[in-house]
Design goal:
Blueprint: E1 6-17, E2 20-31, E3 35-39, H1 46-54, E4 61-66, E5 69-70, H2 76-81, E6 84-87, H3 99-104, H4 127-133, H5 135-138, H6 150-162, E7 168-172, H7 180-195, E8 199-204, H8 207-213, E9 216-221, E10 224-229, H9 231-235, H10 238-245
Parallel strand pairs: 3-8, 3-9, 6-7, 7-8
Antiparallel strand pairs: 1-2, 1-4, 4-5, 9-10
Bound molecules: adenosine-5'-triphosphate (ATP) and magnesium ion.
Length: 250
């Protein structure tokens, strides 16, 4: 891959919680405008990978670079200012703020100075275009976050991430706990984001959803990557599907 096409480059990450050794040497690359899915069973280190990249649980060893500049050691707000948004596991919207306030928070003073996708000639999201994408939020603008359904909260979490026009979105299990209809909606949004130039590192446990949107698939097991390839290459390996994702043959 031409280095100019690499948006995020991660080399040999090792991350601990105290003495607990979780990421044991993870290396990966996210090319510009691609969806890279990270799959793996519960407790294998998917969220820890996202936390390491976003500066929430800094790695003890390894390096991260984004658009060619080092990211290692930066605080989460500095990572965000470089043009990376996080859609955390369990949605984590501000439950005591309204939908409107949740959406407008990223464009308030705190987020000034961030390198937006639009600065690089990419798509520019606005309050109106986000609401166009998530029509169910339009009728709920004055509702508190806690009054939304799980699906609506997930749409809000994704919409909020888009408001800062990130070049890369880190998404941690966006389909978790959603109805089939909302899972399809999340897949549609991911395809739309890719078509607009956003890259996504997508952590998922919904295999069919992830395979339907991903350009590349990584599988993590006990803090190490055990598979890297296209969705087609993964589907041609029933043993890998069985061993690491619990998919039985036939
Ligand atoms: N704050 C923490 N302190 C100590 N150990 C943790 C902490 N967070 C996670 N762990 C442990 O680290 C390992 C990896 O957890 P992680 O949350 O990254 O897994 P995951 O792949 O995201 O799982 P899930 O699919 O359930 O979200 C697990 O053994 C977990 O118990
Ligand atoms: Mg997790």
């Amino acid at each position: 891959m031409d280095s100019a096409d690499v948006l995020l480059s991660v080399q040999d990450l090792h991350t601990y919680y105290g003495d607990s050794y979780v990421l044991q040497g993870v290396s990966l690359q996210v090319p510009r405008g691609q969806v890279v899915a990270v799959l793996g069973r519960n407790g294998m280190g998917k969220t820890t990978l996202i936390r390491s990249l976003f500066g929430l649980t800094p790695p003890r060893q390894g390096s991260i670079s984004f658009m060619g500049a080092p990211l290692t050691g930066l605080a989460p707000y500095e990572v965000a200012a470089r043009g990376i948004s996080l859609v955390p596991q369990g949605r984590r919207i501000f439950r005591h703020l309204t939908v409107r306030e949740n959406l407008l928070l990223p464009v308030s003073g705190l987020a000034k100075g961030r390198q937006a996708l639009s600065d690089q000639g990419g798509h520019t999201w606005t309050f109106d275009s986000v609401l166009h994408e998530f029509p169910q939020l339009r009728d709920r603008l004055s509702n508190g976050g806690s009054e939304l359904s799980g699906g609506e909260q997930q749409m809000l979490a994704i919409g909020r991430a888009l408001m800062s026009n990130p070049a890369l979105v880190l998404m941690d299990e966006p389909s978790e706990g959603l109805s089939p209809r909302y899972v399809l909606h999340v897949a549609d949004i991911l395809r739309r984001m890719r078509s607009l130039g956003h890259a996504v590192l997508l952590v998922e446990q919904n295999l069919s959803m992830a395979l339907s949107v991903a350009d590349q698939v990584l599988i993590i097991a006990s803090g190490r990557l055990v598979f890297k390839g296209t969705p087609e290459a993964l589907q041609a390996q029933p043993q890998v599907l069985h061993d690491h994702l619990g998919v039985s043959a036939g």
